[in-house]
Amino acid sequence: MRDLTYVFYIGGTPEEVWEALISPEGTKKIYYGSVIRSTFQAGEPLEYVGPGVDGDETVHVYGEVLEYVPNQVLRFTHLVGKSYMKDNEQEYESRISYLLEPAGGCTKLTLIHDQWQEGDPYYENSDAAWWMILSNTKTIVETGKTLDLD
Question: Domains along the chain?
Answer without folding.
Answer: 4-143 (3.30.530.20)
